[in-house]
UniProtKB/TrEMBL annotation:
E.C. number(s) listed in UniProt: 1.2.7.5
Family, per entry: Belongs to the AOR/FOR family.
Keywords in alphabetical order: 4Fe-4S, Iron, Iron-sulfur, Metal-binding, Oxidoreductase
Name this polypeptide is given: Tungsten-containing aldehyde:ferredoxin oxidoreductase
Length: 570
């Protein structure tokens, strides 16, 4: 029996409710959006007790179905002021799935800082958290394991989130216990901080209950086989990881360099900030370059980066971090970037928003491009509550306003991720139109050479990517399996039926994907957003980006066919 759990933090009361299998199927990002819309979260200040914080998993969570254990976190975003879903891998979703907990809603505000603890038997405890306050994520994680044992999974708030910094995400434990898998974007950590919840600890039952175990086990095996036979999965994600996208975008001309001034950091043969250089270097030092972030995943696109002495620095180093915290700030040394990434993970912050913010100091002339010492000093300032830290912690849009910088790469107040919209146009359209803010994960098509395509084809490519991303997010699936998953929709839906005992048809995939987009679009409309909020910053339209020399060509007025689809059913 699947259930949901609502926690009244002020009264310290837990309310369980049975959830029908058909409702479980509409999980993850669909469920967070539905709850936020039903609770009318658009009416509330994002940093008020009335803003609910929702954790939701997909219907295959807790099983060994590869890459199906992501956790969606939803709230009205204090960064964008619109709807937000941020998701992450790790073990937290796996634990919730084994508890058959489809979603968890945090309501109100605790009077004292607490650790929420869920036992295998379904008991809920509101434990004091004072001894964890102010600690970085790695120290806090160590204390959680010492207090509650090794067979736990957790969602953890870093020190920036305690002080309601809008850079803050929520860190999930990985398979080795690191607090390194972040639901990072949109300031969801600040919402958890407002509620005075330092961590959520879940005891892992160790066993998943499904409707038809033989069919589920066969689906697990078949999906794993399909992934292992897929060239993109095995030759790119498994072999190199997401950092391979840095090599591609550097050659393609879509890499953010020095606050999106250029699309290429260096000639491809001299590029040192991508997987072609970092992967063999890391392996030669004894690092891992094939590593699973969640139980059962065969893609294993994560990594464990070590230094020249073979000592662990960070896990993982991913493309978005390379693009925004790295090349966008003018860094050229991957070892320096890895150390900054470690700091960011300890602070529990979004490396995309952080990198875009730090670049504004350089844009203003307060530091040189690639000034590692300056970047490290600014990140370390975030451990303390000072004026400098508060300014940085409020995110790129607000920092740009405070510094008086005009060249600020944001949409809906959220930093544009590592795909220049002048070159990677389909993803740029996604980042413009999505209710999530400038978020590539809402529908990425990073390899399309769109200048050879018709406009309607580019729009369709973005829309298809958005529907597929939303469906994957609703089912708790990592999009890096998309080269298989998106082609095997009927099989995936049958796997869900086997797990839940439902009778969903293959049309469910598109139904849930489009349903997510329309829910989110409706929420933002009610929150006061208009199509004009989807426009790119002016410099993208005015400045040609080297080496291709492109300027942006899409405006909200060009997106009318997509708006018409999003308005259906509203």
């Amino acid at each position: 029996m699947w259930r949901s759990l609502q926690l009244d933090l002020k009264a310290k009361k837990a309310f369980w409710q049975e959830v029908a299998p058909e409702e479980v199927a509409f999980g993850g990002r669909y469920r967070t959006g539905r709850i936020l819309l039903e609770r009318e979260a658009h009416r509330f200040d994002p940093l008020s007790p009335e803003n609910p914080l929702v954790f939701a998993v997909g219907p295959l969570a807790g099983t060994g179905f590869s890459n199906a254990n992501r956790t969606s976190v939803g709230a009205r975003s204090p960064l964008t002021l619109g709807i937000k879903e941020a998701n992450g891998g790790g073990t937290f979703g796996y634990a919730l799935g084994q508890m058959k907990l489809a979603w968890l809603v945090l309501e109100g505000q605790s009077e004292d800082w607490v650790v929420l603890r869920l036992t295998r038997s379904g008991e809920v405890f509101f434990d004091p958290a004072e001894d964890l306050l102010g600690l970085g994520n790695f120290a806090a994680a160590k204390k959680l394991f010492a207090a509650y044992g090794e067979r736990i999974a957790f969602a953890l708030l870093g020190p920036v989130g305690e002080r309601l910094g809008l850079l803050s995400g929520i860190a999930f434990s990985d398979i080795d216990g690191r607090p390194s898998r972040l639901a990072a974007r949109g300031g969801v950590g600040a919402v958890m901080g407002l509620k005075r919840v330092k961590a959520i600890v879940v005891e892992v039952p160790g066993k998943a209950e499904v409707w038809d175990k033989p069919k589920v086990l066969e689906a697990v095996r078949r999906y794993a086989r399909l992934l292992r036979e897929d060239p993109l999965v095995m030759q790119f994600y498994n072999a190199i990881g997401t950092m391979g996208m840095a090599d591609f975008q550097n050659a393609f001309g879509g890499l953010p360099v020095r606050n999106f001034r250029e699309g290429r950091l260096s000639p491809p043969e001299a590029f040192r900030m991508g997987g072609q250089h970092i992967a063999p270097l890391n392996k030669s030092r004894g690092g891992k370059h094939t590593h699973a972030c969640m139980p059962g995943c065969v893609i294993q696109c994560s990594n464990v980066i070590v230094d020249e002495k073979g000592e662990e620095v960070v896990s993982p180093l991913e493309y978005e971090t390379i693009g925004l915290l790295g090349t966008n700030c003018g860094l050229t040394d991957p070892d320096q970037l890895a150390r900054l990434n470690r700091l960011a993970n300890d602070l529990g912050i979004d490396t995309i928003e952080t990198g875009a913010s730090l670049a504004l100091f350089m844009e203003k002339g307060l530091a040189d491009w690639g000034d590692y010492a300056f970047m490290e000093e600014r990140l370390r300032s975030l451990y303390q509550d000072g004026e400098e830290a508060r300014l940085l912690a409020q995110g790129t849009a607000r920092l740009g306003e405070a510094l008086g910088v005009e060249r600020v790469p944001v949409i809906k107040r959220q930093a544009i991720s590592a795909y220049d919209p002048r070159v990677v146009e389909a993803t740029g359209i996604t980042m413009m139109i999505t209710a999530q803010g400038a978020d590539h994960t809402a529908g990425n098509a990073p390899r399309l050479e769109t200048r050879a395509m018709k406009v309607e084809e580019v729009l369709e490519a973005s829309y298809t990517a958005q529907v597929n991303a939303a469906a994957n997010d609703a089912l708790g699936l990592c999009v890096f399996g998309g080269s298989v998953t998106n082609k095997e929709v009927a099989f995936v839906v049958e796997a869900v039926n086997a797990a839940l005992g439902t009778r969903l048809t293959p049309g469910f995939w598109r139904e849930v994907g489009e349903g997510v987009l329309r829910l989110e679009h409706r929420f933002n409309h009610l929150a006061g957003f208009t199509h004009q909020d989807d426009r790119l910053p002016r410099f993208f339209y005015e400045e040609p980006v080297p080496p291709k020399g492109y300027t942006a060509r899409f405006t909200p007025e060009d997106l009318t066919p997509l708006y018409e689809r999003l308005h259906q059913g509203s």
